[in-house]
């Protein structure tokens, strides 16, 4: 049985359509990523899967249980780590977990053992009796992950699990997520706008933009799809003509010009770079820098959306207040 | 379905337990919230005691008259604050944790209300105990035991009612700023028009009308009957109103809370 199935899932907020028909099939045990800029509809999508929001139309089910018709059954089967903190700061770590265990009907004779298990897993055992107010941001996140696991969910949703954490803590959280997925075989669905996070963790990725899935595959396949290598040239403004000329070269597979950066997917990078520089020189364009790298998810994102995810984020200040977030 | 009922009770208990842990932990708040009513009682009560007396033959001095009003005030403030704490849960994200749990909304509302009422009752009992040292005596026509039972029952129903009101308001408010507004525009008038400070029998009509639609006035009246034997309304009327208020607010709170997210 599939862990998650959605069919033409749509969510409208008044006149804004945040999710415009999402189709997903996620296998049991899979670590699945929804990748996209803020406001793309990722959080809205998983909020519907978590029964927090009611779909406007379409179907969504968790292990065959419809989120609209059987919300309580679904709630009992899933764990959620929210994007924004959702702990009681005035309780200790252990008390937060105990409260969660009660709400999710974890048998009382197992609760102590389970609490120490999950705390062990996220390395917070020594902080069990400390009031959460005194935890650092990373510790709170880990406690939330521990809490999400306490009732042995079949599916764990992680909404931007490393948002706002320092690089070292992010790596730690990644390790926990991988360990859990591997050892406990928990199906996981995470949303992120970090390319490296999706690349590192996910078995499969759906790239979401403007409420739609624009591409879905394994990170490797997605990258292969871009093909060859990616040459990145810094170019002055008004280099559209250069782009057009280079596009016509037979070994150039695709080009994108975003904010003074020209990206070219090429077959044979070693021979391509001298040619590019020659062409630029003939057109009288100075190229301050040129570099070569293997395709990353960033390139895939640009290919499908025509934008850089980071530029989106910087410009998307108001998107954060849009209906997709809360 | 006994299993479902067991779960329902268990959920109520879980929500109640959290409220109580938070209450016990916020010791400074507990102490502060005892000081305000005690100041009222000591300063106001003593200040007016020599110049005002009530009842047939003036047998009830002002401090005894005021004490039940201050009890009502304590319950009102503690339970409203507790109900509106839903807003803090919303603001700090914890409400989501509760809302996505496999728990019915009604059990959340009832658990919260019981938690708030327990706190209000504890505060009330502490005030009542402390007021003994400044001369407040239970001297009504009821015996001491019956008076205490009536006090507890009354505190319970007005507590539950006002937590329900607080929850209902909290579900409609967008942000914490609204909290102060509600406190000043709703809670203070409810308190002032409850007859806590003065007898409501000889008021101008417009003010008497406001008192008559104030559920706390009936709560204070029942408390005053228990403490001093004085009353404005019949005891049965008092109890009917506070119980009706409790039922109404629990239902309204549950309905409004169902649409919270």
Topology, please?
The complex is a heterodimer of chains A (326) and B (261).
Chain A: E1 4-13, E2 16-26, E3 31-35, H1 42-49, E4 57-62, E5 65-66, H2 71-77, E6 78-81, H3 93-103, H4 108-121, H5 137-149, E7 155-159, H6 167-184, E8 187-192, H7 195-201, E9 204-209, E10 212-217, H8 219-226, E11 229-234, H9 240-247, E12 252-258, E13 261-266, H10 269-282, E14 289-293, H11 297-305, H12 309-315
Parallel strand pairs in A: 3-8, 3-9, 6-7, 7-8
Antiparallel strand pairs in A: 1-2, 1-4, 4-5, 9-10, 11-13, 11-14, 12-13
Chain B: H1 2-25, H2 27-49, E1 53-54, E2 60-61, H3 62-91, H4 94-99, H5 105-131, H6 144-172, H7 177-192, H8 205-212, H9 215-228, H10 235-258
Helix pairs in contact in B: 1-5, 2-3, 2-5, 3-5, 3-6, 3-9, 5-6, 5-10, 6-9, 6-10, 9-10
Give a brief outline of the structure.
Chain A is of the alpha/beta class and 326 residues long. Chain A has helices at residues 42-49, 71-77, 93-103, 108-121, 137-149, 167-184, 195-201, 219-226, 240-247, 269-282, 297-305, 309-315; strands at 4-13, 16-26, 31-35, 57-62, 65-66, 78-81, 155-159, 187-192, 204-209, 212-217, 229-234, 252-258, 261-266, 289-293.
């Amino acid at each position: 049985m599939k862990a998650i199935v959605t069919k033409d899932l749509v969510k409208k907020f008044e006149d804004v359509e945040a999710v415009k028909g999402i189709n997903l099939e996620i296998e049991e045990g899979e670590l699945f990523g929804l990748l996209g800029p803020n406001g793309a509809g990722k959080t809205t999508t998983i909020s519907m899967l978590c029964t927090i929001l009611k779909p406007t139309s379409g179907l969504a089910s968790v292990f065959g249980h419809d989120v609209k018709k059987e919300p309580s059954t679904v709630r009992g089967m899933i764990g959620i780590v929210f994007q924004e903190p959702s702990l009681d700061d005035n309780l200790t770590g252990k008390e937060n977990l105990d409260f969660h265990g009660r709400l999710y009907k974890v048998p009382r004779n197992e609760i102590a053992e389970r609490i120490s298990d999950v705390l062990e897993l996220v390395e917070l055992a020594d902080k069990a009796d400390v009031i959460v107010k005194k935890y650092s941001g990373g510790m709170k996140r880990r406690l939330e992950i521990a809490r999400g696991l306490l009732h042995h969910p079949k599916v764990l949703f992680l909404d931007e699990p490393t948002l706002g954490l320092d690089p070292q803590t992010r790596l730690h959280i990644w390790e926990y997520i991988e360990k859990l997925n591997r050892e406990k075989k928990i199906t996981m669905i995470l949303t992120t706008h970090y390319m490296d996070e999706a690349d590192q963790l996910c078995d499969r990725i759906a790239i979401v933009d403007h409420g739609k899935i624009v591409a879905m595959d394994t990170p490797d396949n997605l990258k292969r799809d871009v093909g060859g290598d990616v040459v990145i040239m810094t170019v002055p403004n008004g280099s559209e003509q250069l782009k057009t000329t280079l596009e016509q070269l037979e070994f150039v597979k695709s080009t994108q010009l975003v904010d003074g950066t020209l990206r070219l997917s090429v077959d044979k990078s070693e021979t391509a770079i001298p040619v590019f520089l020659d062409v630029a020189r003939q057109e009288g364009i100075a190229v301050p820098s040129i570099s070569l790298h293997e395709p990353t998810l960033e390139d895939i994102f640009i290919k499908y959306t025509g934008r850089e995810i980071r530029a989106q984020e910087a410009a998307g200040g108001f998107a954060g207040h849009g209906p997709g977030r809360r | 379905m006994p299993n479902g009922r067991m779960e329902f009770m268990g959920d109520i208990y879980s929500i109640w337990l959290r409220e109580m842990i938070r209450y016990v932990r916020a010791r400074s708040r507990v102490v502060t919230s005892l000081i305000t009513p005690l100041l009222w009682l000591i300063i106001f009560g003593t200040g007016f005691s020599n110049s005002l007396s009530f009842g047939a033959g003036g047998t009830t001095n002002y401090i005894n008259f005021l004490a039940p009003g201050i009890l009502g005030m304590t319950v009102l403030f503690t339970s409203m604050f507790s109900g509106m704490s839903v807003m803090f849960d919303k603001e700090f994200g914890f409400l989501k944790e509760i809302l996505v749990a496999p728990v019915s909304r009604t059990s959340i509302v009832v658990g919260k209300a019981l938690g708030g009422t327990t706190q209000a009752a504890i505060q009330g009992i502490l005030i009542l105990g402390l007021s003994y040292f400044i001369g407040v005596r239970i001297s009504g026509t009821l015996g001491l035991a019956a008076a205490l039972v009536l006090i507890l029952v009354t505190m319970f129903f007005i507590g539950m009612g006002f937590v329900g009101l607080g929850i209902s308001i909290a579900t409609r408010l967008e942000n914490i700023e609204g909290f102060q507004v509600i406190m000043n525009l709703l809670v203070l008038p409810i308190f002032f028009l409850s007859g806590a400070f003065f007898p409501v029998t000889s008021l101008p009509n417009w003010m008497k009308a406001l008192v008559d639609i104030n559920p706390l006035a009936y709560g204070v009246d029942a408390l005053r009957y228990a403490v001093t034997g004085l009353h404005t309304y019949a005891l049965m009327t008092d109890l009917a109103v506070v119980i009706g208020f409790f039922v109404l607010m629990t239902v309204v709170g549950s309905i409004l809370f169902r649409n919270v997210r």
